[in-house]
């Protein structure tokens, strides 16, 4: 007899251990401290004092020893300094991915799928009869043998061309993405931390691409007075500097990177909170933080037009809502025929991931 089994509710069943609970908080703090283990542990100690995260059975000393034993941190034997390991770096990326994806609603869009059948990663459940030109790898032998038995009987097994069934794979378009992150001083100005959400998005996007879309490429460009690339493993350590915003340098570097990529689909995601304020002219920096400087803006617009010409759409995620900044972003977006989102910090990840997976060509203001 089928039915339901009821049992007494146990609040401790499937609950996390004391180490796992502290590890979740510790990983979050590492993002805010740019990978500084000592500072993260100091913050965690303060939280422990206020919210009693530990008890007599498991204290902060036990947690630090477990971090070492489980390979999350390393201690320098000479000076006693602590640093995170590659295991921690990947753990931070995974947690960022889980945090952002947890806020997304289910959708049927995404996966870079096309309507064209061909060699790919996803097996199509549909089969079809064999046609001239199909390869041996495409033959579904289970269905083909089944057809042969039905058509010719089991006693004397024979297989003919008409018995063969082909199972296609859906072609998955490959995409090369450059994620530009503004690390100018304004990203932590006025008491608002804008760089940490940007880092979380970068870490989550890198983890998504490397695990779910391994044939895609992701390059990360940071820009302040100048622009340079950072490795995925360096993302937790990313910090804001005393920089102006040289958007031109970031776009030029992004274009150089994408020109070298062989994927036909290319795109730029740019996270910034302000207008471009810096330009390198020869060996000196031309700077103007007051208003929108047409000399700097025109260079940005020229690059936006060049990207449009070589079919590189730019999606700008503006995490500031000043009216004159909106005007700049609108003009920049129209020139590139790209997209623009004025995103709040808590929704930045959702905006970027939805846009990355949908791939629609639509300008949003």
The level-1 CATH class of the largest domain: Alpha Beta
Rg calc: 26 Å
What is the structural class?
Answer: alpha/beta
**Count of distinct structural domains:** 3
Please summarize the sheet with the most strands.
Answer: 6 strands, mixed
Q: Specify the helix fraction band.
A: 25-40%
Overall shape: flat
Please tell me about this protein's structure.
The protein has 10 helices and 12 strands. It is α/β, with parallel strands linked by helices and 365 residues long. It has 3 domains: 18-84; 117-171, no CATH class; 175-358, von Willebrand factor, type A domain (Rossmann fold). The strands form 4 sheets. It has a 6-stranded mixed β-sheet with strand order 7-6-5-8-11-12, sandwiched between helices. Strand 6 (217-223) and strand 7 (227-230) form a beta hairpin. Helix 7 runs parallel beside helix 8 (294-309). The longest helix has 18 residues, at 195-212. The termini are far apart.
Descriptive keywords:
6-stranded mixed beta sheet; 39% helix; Rossmann fold; 365 residues
